[in-house]
Write a structure and sequence with these properties.
This protein is α+β, with helices and mostly antiparallel strands. The protein is built from one helix and eight strands; from the N terminus they run H-E-E-E-E-E-E-E-E. An eight-stranded mixed barrel has the order 1-2-3-4-7-8-6-5.
Length: 236
């Protein structure tokens, strides 16, 4: 005789249709999440660089107009053509001929300052001054994505209203985010008195991460009036 065990209360098994429906819902959610991630990746790869390039194109035009006008101080974008986020312009362009890139430089390194441009550390020297002209940029495709390709001897051009400055890369290093001494007047020695004219570029390292900083140090080697045209090797 077959003995049938009594069913336990509270342990009923859901019907197969309910299990399949739940699995289907989970699968659809996973697919949707995957598509969202792919769209975000596509935006970061193509969309954001296009936005930065468009902003830089407009900032280039604004800076050209400002430089063509009689000097009245630091050039700033006109209110009618300003980007949709606050932007404090330094009135300077940064050229990296090896990477075939150049940008209008922002004044400041807050997130809003460097969203569309590399930004000047406000406490650091200005272009051509004794000390350390320090500039930070995001490690995005439109900005400092390939900064690791710079090496000793490569040129960096800095263009202001009146002058071209040419710096030559001396060292490239990777440091921790806490190593703020890299942007000191004497890089690596915050207590020292500067005697050289340095330039420092900083960005996150490696790509897509911010647990390190990639640092490029360069030293001023020449300068000439902007009216003389671009210096040899800059290719402006």
């Amino acid at each position: 005789m077959t003995v049938v065990a009594p069913a336990r209360r509270g342990t009923s098994v859901p019907p197969p249709s309910r299990v399949f429906a739940t699995l289907r819902m989970v699968g659809e959610l996973a697919v949707t999440a995957g598509l969202v991630l792919l769209l975000f990746a596509a935006y970061e790869f193509w969309g954001r660089p296009a936005q930065v390039d468009a902003r830089q194109h407009e900032l280039d035009r604004q800076l050209d107009r400002a430089w063509a006008a009689p000097p009245t101080g630091v050039a700033t974008p006109s209110a009618s053509a300003a980007p949709t986020v606050p932007f404090k312009e330094l009135g300077t362009r940064l050229w990296l001929p090896k990477l075939k890139k150049h940008w209008v430089v922002a004044e400041g390194v807050a997130p809003a300052d460097i969203r569309w441009a590399p930004g000047h550390y406000p406490a650091s020297a200005l272009p051509g001054q004794v000390g350390n002209f320090a500039v930070a940029g995001h490690r995005t495709r439109a900005l400092f994505w390939d900064l690791d390709k710079l090496g000793a001897g490569d040129l960096v051009g800095v263009q202001t209203r009146d002058t071209w400055y040419v710096y030559q890369v001396r060292t490239v290093e990777i440091v921790s985010p806490s190593a703020t001494e890299v942007v000191a007047p004497v890089p690596g020695d915050p207590e020292a008195t500067p005697t050289r004219k340095m330039l420092t570029l900083t960005t996150c390292n490696p790509r897509y991460h911010n647990n390190q900083r990639l640092i490029v140090h360069a030293e001023l080697t020449s300068e000439q009036p902007r009216s003389s045209g671009a210096p040899a090797g800059i290719g402006a």
